[in-house]
C-alpha cells in the first residue's frame, strides 16, 4: 500500500517527535521533503531519523508531498497555505497563532478545496467547543496558570512593570481578550488562537494568565457556557521529554493528527 508522502516545514522539536512517531507507530507515512531557515536543523533531523528526504525550499517541499506539516513559526503560515493551495496539498498547521492576524486564509484554503488541519495542541476541550458552537456559545474563558519563570521576558510584563520573580502567591498578570493576549504574550499564542478559532473568535474569547509560584506545570482551564450547557476542562501539561520549553501534549497532538491523516490517505488510496 502506498505511504502518504509528508513534507515538514520547520525541523525542530515537534518535527523530531513526529518523525519518531511515524517510525515507532509504523504509520503509513514517509517524510520525503524538509525545509528550514536553518539548513543545519534540516540536516540534523534527516540524520537523526535516517530519513530518505530532500532538503529544499518551502515551495518545492509542498510540491513534492501529499501532506505538509508546518511546525516552524507563525509568520511562515501564509506562505505554507499559498503553496498548499497552489499544489492542492492538505496541511497541518502547528503555529495556529499565525491565523490570528489573517483568519481569512482558512476560508481561502477551504474555497480552494485544501484541508487545513488545526491541532488541539497543548489543550483539551476544543472538540467540545467546536461542537457547542453549532448551537452558539455565550462565553468562553481560558485561564492559563504558569510557573513565573515561564513568563519572564514577556513584553506585557516589561511594559506594565510587573515583577513575577518574587511572588509569594498567585497573581493574575493579564485579563483581556484572546486577541490582546496574543500580542501581550506572543510565546503563549497557540492555545488562545486554537480556542478562538474553534469558538467565538479572538475578540469575544476571554483569556486570564496567572503567574503561580507554587505551580510546577503549565495548566490550561477552559470554561464555556452555551445552549448545550456548561463545560470545564483542565489540562495539566508536563514538558516534552526532549524539549523542556514545550508541552508534551503539543507533540502528541501533532503525531495524532499525522496518524489520522495517514489513515485517511490509506483509505482513499486502497
Ligand atoms: N498548537 C500548539 O498548541 C503548539 C504547541 C507548541 C508549539 N507550537 C508551535 O509549533 C511550532 C514549532 O514548535 P517547536 O517546539 O518544534 O519549535 P522549535 O523551535 O523546536 O523548531 C522550529 C523550527 O522551525 C525553524 N524555522 C523558524 N522559522 C522558520 C521559517 N520561516 N521557515 C522555515 N523554518 C523555520 C527553526 O529553525 C526550527 O528548526 C512553533 O511555532 C510553536 O509555537 C504549537
Helix and strand arrangement:
Elements: E1 4-9, H1 13-24, E2 29-35, H2 39-48, E3 54-55, H3 58-63, E4 67-70, H4 77-87, E5 90-93, H5 104-111, E6 116-117, H6 126-132, E7 137-146, H7 155-159, E8 171-177, H8 178-184, H9 189-198, E9 206-211, E10 218-226, E11 229-237, E12 239-240, E13 243-247, H10 248-269
Parallel strand pairs: 1-2, 1-4, 2-3, 4-5, 5-6, 7-9
Antiparallel strand pairs: 7-10, 8-9, 10-11, 12-13
The chain binds nicotinamide-adenine-dinucleotide (NAD).
Nicotinamide-adenine-dinucleotide binds next to helix 1, helix 9 and strand 13.
General description of the model:
With 270 residues, the chain is of the alpha/beta class. The chain is built from ten helices and 13 strands. The strands form three sheets. Strands 3-2-1-4-5-6 form a six-stranded parallel beta sheet, with helices on both faces. β12 and β13 form a beta hairpin. It is globular and about 55 Å long. The mean pLDDT is 94. The structure holds nicotinamide-adenine-dinucleotide. Nicotinamide-adenine-dinucleotide is lined by residues 9-15, 35-38, 41, 71-74, 76, 94-96, 119, 121-122, 190-191, 194, 243, 246, 250. The site of nicotinamide-adenine-dinucleotide has 29 residues, from α1, α9 and β13.
Amino acid at each position: 500500500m502506498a505511504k502518504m508522502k509528508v513534507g515538514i516545514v520547520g525541523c525542530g522539536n515537534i518535527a523530531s517527535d513526529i518523525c519518531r512517531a511515524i517510525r515507532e507507530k509504523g504509520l503509513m507515512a514517509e517524510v520525503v521533503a524538509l525545509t528550514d531557515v536553518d539548513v543545519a536543523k534540516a540536516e540534523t533531523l534527516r540524520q537523526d531519523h535516517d530519513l530518505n528526504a530532500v532538503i529544499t525550499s518551502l515551495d518545492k517541499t509542498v510540491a513534492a508531498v501529499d501532506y505538509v506539516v508546518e511546525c516552524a513559526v507563525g509568520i511562515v503560515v501564509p506562505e505554507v497555505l499559498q503553496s498548499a493551495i497552489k499544489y492542492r496539498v492538505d496541511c497541518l498547521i502547528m503555529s495556529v497563532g499565525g491565523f490570528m492576524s489573517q483568519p481569512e486564509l482558512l476560508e481561502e484554503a477551504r474555497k480552494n478545496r485544501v484541508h487545513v488541519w488545526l491541532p488541539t495542541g497543548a489543550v483539551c476541550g476544543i472538540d467540545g467547543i467546536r461542537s457547542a458552537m453549532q448551537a452558539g456559545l455565550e462565553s468562553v474563558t481560558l485561564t492559563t496558570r504558569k510557573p513565573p519563570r515561564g513568563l519572564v521576558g514577556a513584553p506585557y510584563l516589561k511594559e506594565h512593570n510587573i515583577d513575577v520573580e518574587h511572588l509569594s502567591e498567585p497573581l493574575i498578570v493579564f485579563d483581556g481578550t484572546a486577541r490582546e493576549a496574543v500580542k501581550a504574550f506572543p510565546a503563549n499564542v497557540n492555545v488562545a488562537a486554537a480556542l478562538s478559532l474553534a469558538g467565538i473568535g479572538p475578540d469575544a474569547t476571554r483569556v486570564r494568565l496567572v503567574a503561580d509560584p507554587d505551580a510546577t506545570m503549565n495548566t490550561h482551564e477552559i470554561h464555556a457556557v452555551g445552549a448545550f450547557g456548561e463545560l470545564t476542562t483542565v489540562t495539566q501539561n508536563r514538558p516534552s521529554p526532549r524539549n523542556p520549553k514545550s508541552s508534551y501534549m503539543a507533540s502528541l497532538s501533532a503525531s495524532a493528527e499525522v496518524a489520522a491523516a495517514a489513515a485517511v490517505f490509506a483509505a482513499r488510496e486502497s
